[in-house]
Structures are given as C-alpha cells and as structure tokens.
Amino acid sequence: MDKIAKVTTQEGGFKIDYLTYKNVCKMNNTNTLVASDVIKEVDVMPILGTDYIELYVSNAKQAAYFYKTAMGFQSLAYAGLETGQRDWESYVVVQDKIRLVLTSPLRSGTDIGRHIDQHGDGVKVTALWVEDARKAYESAMARGAQSFMSPVVEEDQFGHVVRAGIHTYGEVVHIFVERKNYKGSFLPGYQSWKPYYEAEGVGLKYVDHMVGNVGLGRMNHWVKFYEEVMGFKQILSFDDKDISTEYTALMSKVMSNGNGRIKFPINEPAPSIKKSQVDEYLEFYEGEGVQHIAVATDDIIKTVTELRERGIEFWIFLLPIMIHFSIV
Ligand SMILES: [Fe+2]
C-alpha cells in the first residue's frame, strides 16, 4: 500500500494519507472506504454556521437602537427584568442569518460589568450552531478544550435548546447551540421583541469571518488550538510583509472549519517603525479579543451607500486578494 490513498468522488477525487485510511477502515470494520467516510473523519467538529454573537455593552437598549437604525437590523428577542432576569438584560437583533445579542448589567458587581470596565464594549460569545451540542462539547473537551459551561438543557413552551461552552483566546468563549427541537424566536428565557419601530435592512447576510487579536508569539498557539481542539484547517497565511504599512505590521493565519462556514483569522503583532495595530488593540482592549466581525453582502456598493446615508463612516483599504470596507 502506498502511503497515500486516493478516494474517488463525483468531483474527481482527492488524496488522503495512509494513517487516515487505516483509521477510517478500522472504524468501519472494512478494507475500503468511500468519500463520505473521509469527510466524516476529517470534520471532527461539524458546525452548521454561526448561531449568534453576544457583545457585552454598556447600554444594550441604545446599542440595539444603533444596530437597527444605522446597520439595518430588526428586533428579535429580549430578556431582562420582565422575563425574570435580575442582573442583566439582553436585546437580540437580526439581519438575515446574523444574530447579535447585546447584553448589559442591571446592577453593579456583575462579571458583565467587570468585563465592560476592563475592555469597553466587546465580543464575549461566538455561538456555533451544531446538530449535537453535547457531542461537540465532549469531543472538544477530549481534545484539550477548557470548559466554560457544561451542557445545559433550556426549555420553554416552544421546545428545548442544548448549550455548552469552551474558552478560546482572551475572555472570548465559543458556545455550541443545538436548536433542532426549538421553535421559539431565539432561546428559552427570551421573549419575542416586536416594537412599533423597525428599520429597513441594508443587505447584510451572514457572518463571513471573525478575527481574533492575540499577543506576540501567541498566534501559533491558537492556530494549534483551532487545529487540534476544533478540527479546523489553516487556509491562508499573511506575514508582516503582506499586511504592513511603513508604520504598522501584523501576522495572520486564517483558520476554517470543515465546511468553510466558520472562518477565524488569528492576528499577532509584528515589529515595525511604530506600534503594530494589534499591539495597540491589546493595550486599549486590555487583553486578547475579537478585533472585527466581517459580514457578507451580495451588493457591497449598495450596502455601503445605504450605511453611509445612515451616518456610518468608512475607511477603505486594499489587500492583495480582497477589498475590505471597515467601519470606524
Ligand atoms: Fe476581515
């Protein structure tokens, strides 16, 4: 047997290494394997998409108004005093497949308040939509993840949801969300939020990628985490020659899950004449965290024009293979 086995698919075939071949055959108790076996073997962490992104913010209601009025999101759900929460409130807004949860503390001395005091407004949770949250959690834990939240079943009259979470860089966590048995607007514990005022959408469709800024020398640590714990693959790499100006530089590796729906670039600072923008982030955010969330649109000119009309300011820069429009 050659060290590399070729598996034929309808698209023409691809190669896998001998060890994978042996392992999959052993698992299936056969001497042959088909393409679907290999896909199962490679994607140890099947993820259906981004479920929601939760930001801890100092004023959730005002933030929700901003995301609705300026960014074209619609109201979806609410939790707070009226739903029995005494310590925090969350407003959930949605645009196509993007769900943002905007959470603020209702009293002093909460961890949410401490997070805001240290970091300012920022991303706390990237929730990943999975078929089986317990399995995703247990499989990540078996490969070395650090637990944030053991699996919990939450339910109301619309069904039940299973959630479990693990830590990633900084204070950011990934929460696995299994919602196949749930028909409510967002999650159990939230009520539908249907105010009189709604803004028109601007064509934002889904989360394209979410970038993490990590400390000097830490990029490869987190690349390894996404490879080993989450089963991601590195799909792109930029060094300081690719992403730099005369004054600021960074290095970045882009990690993607098996079906490509989740992409997490990881940045670390690189030396330059002035401080790297990643260093600047780490200093002012006071730690590692999410640098930006990129969202997709089918018509970027139309979306950007509409956002500018609503008061969003832009700076535009060119990378060799893509155009980024960033909101300042
Ligand atoms: Fe980006």
Can you offer a commentary on this structure?
With 328 residues, the chain is of the alpha+beta class. It has three domains: 4-42, no CATH class; 49-192, 2,3-Dihydroxybiphenyl 1,2-Dioxygenase, domain 1 (Roll); 204-327, 2,3-Dihydroxybiphenyl 1,2-Dioxygenase, domain 1, CATH 3.10.180.10. It is built from eight helices and 18 strands. It has helices spanning 18-28, 35-42, 60-69, 111-119, 133-142, 219-228, 277-285, 300-309; strands spanning 4-7, 14-17, 49-56, 74-79, 88-95, 98-105, 122-129, 147-156, 159-167, 173-178, 191-192, 204-213, 233-238, 249-256, 263-270, 289-297, 314-319, 322-327. It has a nine-stranded mixed beta sheet with strand order 8-9-10-7-3-6-5-4-11. A hairpin with a 2-residue loop joins β17 (314-319) and β18. The radius of gyration is 21 Å and the shape is globular. Bound molecules: fe (ii) ion. Residues 209, 211, 292, 294, 324 line the site of fe (ii) ion (FE2).
Give me a quick take on this structure.
The longest helix has 11 residues.
- Which strand order spans the largest sheet, edge to edge or round the barrel? 8-9-10-7-3-6-5-4-11
Distinct small molecules: fe (ii) ion
Put simply, the count of helices is 8
Largest sheet: 9 strands, mixed
Rg from alpha-carbon coordinates: 21 Å
**Count of extended strands:** 18
The helix-strand sequence is: EEHHEHEEEHEHEEEEEHEEEHEHEE
Could you say what the CATH architecture of the largest domain is?
Answer: Roll
Looking at CATH, which topology of the largest domain would you report? Answer: 2,3-Dihydroxybiphenyl 1,2-Dioxygenase, domain 1
CATH class of the largest domain: Alpha Beta
Q: Which blocks of ≥5 consecutive residues have pLDDT under 50?
A: none
Fraction of residues in β-strands: 35-45%
Mean pLDDT: 88
Please bin the fraction of helical residues: 10-25%
Shape assignment = globular
Query: Structural class of the secondary elements?
Result: alpha+beta
Q: Oligomeric form of this entry?
A: single chain
